[in-house]
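Lecture notes, unit on protein representations.

Consider one protein chain, 309 amino acids long.
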Amino acid sequence: MITNFSLDSYTINNTRSLRTDTNYCSVSITVGTNPAITKTQAMGDQGDGTYKIGLGISADVPAGPDVPVVFSYAIVNNGHGSPSDVQKGVEAALSALGSAGAKAASSAIGPAVGSVLGASLGTAVVPLLGTAIGALAGWITGEIGGILFANCDGPVAAGVRIYTSSSLASQTANGHKLTETTSHPGTDSATGCGANSKYTTVDSISTLASITPIFSLAGKWDSGGIPGPVISVSGNAISVDMSAYHRPAAHGTILDSSDITVTFPDDKTYTAKLQAPATIHWSNNSTWTKVATVTLAPHVVNLTTAVGA
């Protein structure tokens, strides 16, 4: 079951800093014991208002056996750290949160996990900021470290939703979308930073039809004659490892069999057309070609000759 988890929009009622919040939004999904899938988008400097984002991740949620599914998100204000450091820090924190939530839920499949996370499994949002549930108010800051949050920077909203795969399947059946609106009253701001930020987030979960592109996107790609990008695919979600260029990971979505979109945190969002046998034509007129996998023929040793030599 391909399921889409999305931070759809948020409203700022009061900015944390004196003028605007320099915001980064991150989402993460952990299915069972699989590694977390994460995605981050820089939103720039924002004052009061409502912002549409649609930051989503698709994941393949198995029909059985029953496993925990943890969806988490965070919005952090950081106008002083590098974008790559912010992305790595927040995604690491959400990945850790997903693993912790999945571990706690795995021992409570069936009954409620209220004693662990303060919510019935698969039914509630647990706000991380502005609450005392499980001492999670400082989770994001504690996991990332204070170095990312100098001056008036800091987390302004975060949340987690925990389900079992079976409850998620039943609640998203027949095209039903699960939508939650959550108020985040904020945490105490440093002296001189103005009043606390107040955010309201809207997130959703829905089931998607699985899309098969005209060729496999997974593998290493050649960009401008230099092999480097490595694409991995989970459901309809794309992750691009750009570490060969010392750039942060990019994330995107398979739109249909021949179209994709990818957001590069240190650049911007590009769309692309897929052309068989294996070429990606980007909207900035660049192209990537897939690096062929070379299979070496087995080396056969003539044991008789070798022994008799």
